[in-house]
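Morning, I've got a small favour to ask if you have a moment. I owe you a coffee for this, so here goes:

…
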Amino acid sequence: METARDVTRVLVVDDEESQRTALASMIKLWGYSVETAADGQEAIEKLASFVAHVIVTDLNMPRLSGQELLKRLKEDGDATPVIVQTAYGGLDTALEMVHELGAFWFIDKPVDTLALRLLIERAAAQEKLAEHAERLARQLSNTGLLGEMVGSSPKMREAFSLIQQVAPSRAAVLITGESGTGKELAARAIHALSPRRNAPFVALNCAAMPDTLMESELFGHEKGAFTGAVDRRAGCFELAQNGTVLLDEIGDMPVSLQAKLLRVLEDSRVRRLGGKTEIQLDVRILASTNSPLDAAIREGRFREDLFYRLNVFPIPLPALRERKDDLPALTSALLSDLNRKHGTKVTDVSKDVLERFQAYSWPGNVRELRNVVERAVILAGQGTILAAHLAAGFGGAPSAATGKPAAANGEELRIPVGSTIEQAERALIELTLEHTRHNKTRAAEVLGISQKTLFNKLKEYGGQTARA
């Protein structure tokens, strides 16, 4: 339901009362809240109490003309979109209004009703987007928050700045970072700050999707296109029409599908499996990966041309171990969220717990922090989280030789000299599986790889073991 706060407010400025009244009445019929002013001077006075989203003004008026009104607004730093209308204009005047004085658009009298309505809609959308972005910028400056992302460390502020800069554009974005760093949250923040924020956001996890189903999930299918296709189904591109698609863990997409994806990106058209016609698309593409794609390109597992298509605007997200200054704020935000989820009343964490958090390397990043805090919140129930609420062996026991934490289950990984990279990798995976009690999802998080990559590695190993 639309509230009074959500209604777009329009200020109509015209010295001819009959035209002013008629125009105001018409704009009201379109669902807008309208105020009127007889000239630029009265408009300035009205704007002191009436916060307009759009101004529609005549050009030639007594006391303060439309041109002078634009100059005053520009001097005052007021960026409200202004639509200038006049019966005496020309190309030179229009250029001055739009380019030099910052008018949103210039329209001749008699006004084309349909054109004016469309201009007001677009100007209002631009104003509300700017207002939303400014509000988020203030929130970020004051609290270190951007959507659901938390952080005021230099690396996070840099990431926030990149998100804010690219969001209003149509550019493809490649978000990189280890598993658990918040790549999907970054993608959602880009969508929320964009002009597409009221349209769908659709995410497809390429690592968790079987190869046989991924093509259908991407492009959709017609009834009878393959065995089991009992109904027509729209793919993620169709579902995200006018909105945003996130291709999560794009590095795990099969090469055979990458060529088809590239064609969709180049043509902005998609054809369902088994379909005969192409569907025109208007979709913004975001992609993410938990490991650099350079090696995959060299090994032929990822198309170089697709990489350049997706990597128009790269945004790297730091690992949690690289921004430990954010741990207090992150923990506080998680406590608020988890208290709502579980109905608990936990207020903070003890100094000892925070010190242990600071000493830990967080291989699973923010996702692992959330899991640790959630367990502690459930155990504590209320008050302060103590060390006793953490899992046994959290962070590992310090090594006598190095003073650094050993493996999280108390075991150190020892790799004999002469071992190959493949042998060392296998040993690390098996040790991690032992630590997580063979929970493959958790092991993948700790290792910083996708579940699909872990499953593929285990399939390669078969029944053999690398460790005695």
Summary: The chain is about 45% helix and 15% strand. The CA atoms of residues 113 and 333 lie 49 Å apart. The chain has a mean pLDDT of 81.
